[in-house]
Amino acid sequence: MVDAAQRLIQQHGYNGFSYDDIAREIAIKKPSIHHHFRTKADLVQTIVRRYADRFATLLRGIDASGEDAPARLARYGALFAATYQQDRRLCVCGILGAEAAALSPALALDVRAFFQLNLDWLASTIGQGQQAGLLRARGSAEEQAYGLLSALEGAMMVGRGVGTDHSPANAGATYVSNMLA
């Protein structure tokens, strides 16, 4: 049920799916969904928290690789590419961020926390790359982190909008290659 709802969010956004859509997709009755999730916001908050937890685990795995900053940033971009390659799905929090005004305050905070997790990880990784002399950048590591995350999230949306299969990893790779020392 949660997986089906996540796919629907990634394809249609928060306002683009209903409990009816989930029930049809997994062949259950709507009351079964309400039994587990009283409101749509409760369901989506569960999805966002799970998505953020999984993403944090992936980031820890990238860090554990022992690779240099440019290699870790390339692996980071590949996470977005892998998501997009699944029927042009968008990042759960990316699409929800675009709909922030329609979200409950608690859900909006969880989406914001996902982005902050990413920005903190990116700034740290970019900062390490700068200190090692592997990355050069105009502006602070925090500004570069914001730019890279924006490039990746935006590449997914623009790719879907123009109907291309170009991977968001290309946008990330271009951004990182411009920072290489």
From TrEMBL:
Pfam families in alphabetical order: TetR_N (PF00440)
Top-rank taxon: Bacteria
Keyword DNA-binding in annotation: yes
Keyword hit for Acetylation: no
DNA-binding residue intervals: 18-37
InterPro entries: Homeodomain-like_sf (IPR009057), HTH_TetR (IPR001647), Tet_transcr_reg_TetR-rel_C_sf (IPR036271)
SUPFAM superfamilies reported in the protein's UniProt record: Homeodomain-like, Tetracyclin repressor-like, C-terminal domain
Domain HTH tetR-type, residue spans: 1-55
Keywords: DNA-binding, Transcription, Transcription regulation
Protein name: TetR family transcriptional regulator
Annotated source species: Massilia genomosp. 1
